[in-house]
Write a structure and sequence with these properties.
The chain is α+β, with helices and mostly antiparallel strands. Helix content is about 35%, strand content about 25%. The site of zinc ion has 5 residues, from α3.
Length: about 375
Amino acid sequence: MELLELERRLIGFDTVSAHSNLALIEFLEGRLKALGLRVELFPNADGNKANLLATLGAPDTPGLMLSGHTDVVPVEGQAWSSDPFTLTPGDGRFYGRGTADMKSFLAQVLLAVQAVRHRRLRLPLHVAATYDEEVGCLGAGDMLRQLAAAGRMLPRCAVIGEPTGFQVFSMHKGMCRVRVGIKGVEGHSSKPNMGANALYPAARIIQQLAELEAERRARRSYEDAFELPYTTVNAAVVHGGTAFNIIPNRCDLEFEFRTMPGEDPDYVLRQVQGFVDEVVLPDLRRQHGDTDIRVEKVMQGAPMLTPPGTEIEALALELTGRSRSGAAPYYTEGALYNAAGIPTVICGPGDIDQAHRANEFITAEQLQAGLPFLGRLIERVCL
Ligand SMILES: [Zn+2]
């Protein structure tokens, strides 16, 4: 199968994260088995999704892993000019959901594997395809846990083909999502002394978030690599209150922060928790004893920082003709792979600016450019 036909098939699977990815996984499994790879599937707990890990070459020997996620973001509410799940050519581009993020890489990997399937490999070549990357890198985390539980050897190094336009990214920020639940006491608005308004503590916490971001903005690092070289904070969602004459008995607040590599990933959270415990909650309790504030971490991912001087980073820079690696402006599975001890770089076809939007596309040039890159990469590591 040629590149465009593979691309057309991959884009045709509706693998929005809320849906099953099994049809796509079965397609990849069939293709990779036909090329002589050993293929393992790692189903999720519900059995409606799976990760795939395939190996060409010696079993249980750490090799080069080429990794991509199979899921894509939703298309609802976006003004597409063509069917998002039908690969549509036009003006030297190919449109479709996942063309940039990141099915083109998977198509390129299939062809790159095909090209070396009869060669004798010094080190094995692994292909990983994961689920639920777009909703928190869940699939890659599950696969790593299952591999660790089975005492399996992990790959020697990895390249994740997220859309970087074949720049090399070796780091990115971490992320942490936090929910704050404030319990006040309701009452008639004419008698504020009888209740405890849940909105005022929320306002104080939101103000603190703004101050924390200002404080972090003054502490910059890796300025060459990041567009915003500091930890960012975002007050994201507030729910509270029902009517103008009722003292609100509840306010729920959500915020997130994105921590720079090398910084304490819990710093912002600890500052908020400390402010709540020492200042905001005692003040609220003085108004009424039947009040509470709960700060709960919903999800956290560590920053990515590839250890300096790794073979895979040097090689990716050499093969792409870049002088130094940069930082991804988004979260990736690379943080998990690095944390598991697999030196990983992010490098793949397409432009992140096209991802997650209506009329997502990849240029014909970027679609073609993956094959020589992957061919040379495999040659240098595996042959
Ligand atoms: Zn992606």
